Amino acid sequence: MRLLKLVPDHTNIDFVRLRGWAFGLTLILSVLAIGITFAKGLNFGVDFEGGLMIEERFASPPDLDRLREVVDAQGLGEASLQQFGDPRTLTIRLPVQEGADEGATNAAVKKVETAISQAFPGATFNRYSTISGKVSGELIRNGVLAVVLAVLGIGLFAIVRFEWQFGVSTIAAIVHDLLMTLGFFALTQFEFDLNIVAAVLTIIGYSINDKIVIDDRIRENMRRYRKMDMREIVNLSVNETLPRTVMTSVTILLALGALLFLGGHVLRGFTAAMILGIVVGTYSSIYVSSSLLITLGLRANPAPEKVSRGGIDNAERIVTRGE
Description:
Elements: H1 19-40, E1 43-44, H2 46-49, E2 51-57, H3 64-72, E3 80-84, E4 86-94, H4 102-119, E5 124-131, H5 133-161, H6 164-188, E6 191-192, H7 194-224, H8 230-262, H9 268-295, H10 309-320
Helix pairs in contact: 1-6, 1-9, 5-6, 5-7, 6-7, 6-9, 7-8, 7-9, 8-9
């Protein structure tokens, strides 16, 4: 039985030739992501903002102004409304209820639920969650710390395992992936909660796995073809690992696609972040991390001992293959 091949054997795509355009596109997208994040901000969930979040489903899309008046009339603070999955499902956020224990929180939820059911017949209560402002602040610090330590640890590993250029290029690619994720959530206003932090850390893990595989192949080829130009080594290494990269990405995307359509709206933000991370991570592995090694001056210096003629001939045959 023939094995499925998404990428033909012995590909010879000149990825490095487009690195100037790739760097320009990466810079533009990164600046746009930063601008959108600062301009629109992230739609922090209760995990990070603190307060009370109530999810309500209506028989038909409700009048948001009327719904806000009904909730505000309960004296629990100014309400924030947002559609959640479809126009008939909304989340209602209320400020932290100072000094409120579990009993008081349940009373507040019951008060809102009763008022909504009277004003909007057919409305049903789904769930609620609450968290204090102090805990939400700790979660923000811990979430940011987890991401920063992950990025720095990965960069340090790449420097120790390979050379400093690999560490710098890896950190640059991961920062690019993170900026794309933040820009996406700022643009779509999907809820940003602890599930998304988990997705971001998973994206970092996937991205570094792909990058380390390519970097390891680059280092092997630097030792094997010591007189080959660095541009050719990068192209050769990316082409050699391309079947694995594409197969891994497609397999994960198939699973995430099923989760996106069948997992329900609760997992929609997490799944969307993962899909974006796979696409962006694959792009950055090929066009950002690998090509940046050339800009950083990485070279495959000839060995002190004489390089065998056969090794040079083999390298030349690989470089010229397909011409």
